[in-house]
């Protein structure tokens, strides 16, 4: 790690960890959604909305700290990108839950549970990785595994699309379900963006 003669603002590490922990909360709510009835889904959506608002607050706190700090632990651009990518994950997860409720989807297509399981694992890995930003150590396996999970998510997404277009669903249902599985795929992409940003930061700091 590059030696620094100047002090660094360390509260960013705690804020990134808090943001990632909140994403774990969101992924657990997605898991709850799978076996929930209509009434329970509404309640889950309300909790997910609260989690998304908490994520927004965490992101705004990072931006405020960034704008008021003379010394930062790593490049300002990378701090902004990392915070924004973490925020994107929560936005996509909240959107997926909201769409399920708004569209009154009775049954999600087989394979969505695999999408959500991938997101839950990526959330755990991301939350575990954030504290390591302090030292930039033991992060390589994190971004390799998240990139592998994103590839797995791509495969699941393609199979879901093939399933939706196999003639089993009517056109309106296809439009609804496709939007949901597409948003879940965007969440997987956002996890990869976070991992790629962490890799960029680590390389710069090495």
UniProtKB/TrEMBL annotation:
Family: Belongs to the UPF0111 family.
InterPro entries xref list: PhoU-like_sf, Put_Phosphate_transp_reg, UPF0111_domain
Pfam annotation, one family: PhoU_div
Protein name, per record: Phosphate transport regulator
Domain of life: Bacteria
Matches recorded under Gene3D superfamilies: Phosphate transport system protein phou homolog 2, domain 2
Gene source species: Streptomyces fulvorobeus
């Amino acid at each position: 790690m590059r030696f620094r003669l100047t002090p660094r603002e360390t509260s960013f590490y705690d804020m990134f960890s808090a943001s990632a922990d909140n994403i774990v909360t969101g992924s657990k709510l997605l898991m709850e959604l799978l076996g929930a009835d209509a009434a329970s889904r509404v309640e889950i959506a309300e909790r997910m909305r609260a989690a998304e608002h908490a994520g927004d607050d965490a992101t705004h706190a990072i931006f405020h700290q960034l704008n008021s700090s003379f010394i930062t632990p790593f490049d300002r651009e990378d701090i902004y990108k990392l915070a924004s990518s973490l925020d994107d994950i929560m936005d996509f997860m909240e959107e997926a839950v909201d769409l399920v409720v708004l569209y009154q989807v009775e049954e999600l297509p087989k394979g969505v549970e695999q999408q959500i399981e991938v997101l839950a694992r990526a959330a755990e890995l991301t939350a575990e990785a954030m504290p390591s930003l302090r030292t930039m150590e033991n992060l390589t396996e994190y971004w390799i595994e998240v990139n592998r999970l994103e590839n797995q998510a791509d495969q699941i997404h393609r199979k879901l699309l093939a399933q939706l277009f196999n003639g089993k669903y009517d056109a309106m249902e296809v439009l609804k379900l496709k939007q949901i599985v597409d948003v879940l795929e965007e969440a997987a992409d956002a996890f990869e963006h976070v991992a790629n940003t962490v890799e960029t930061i680590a390389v710069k700091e090495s």
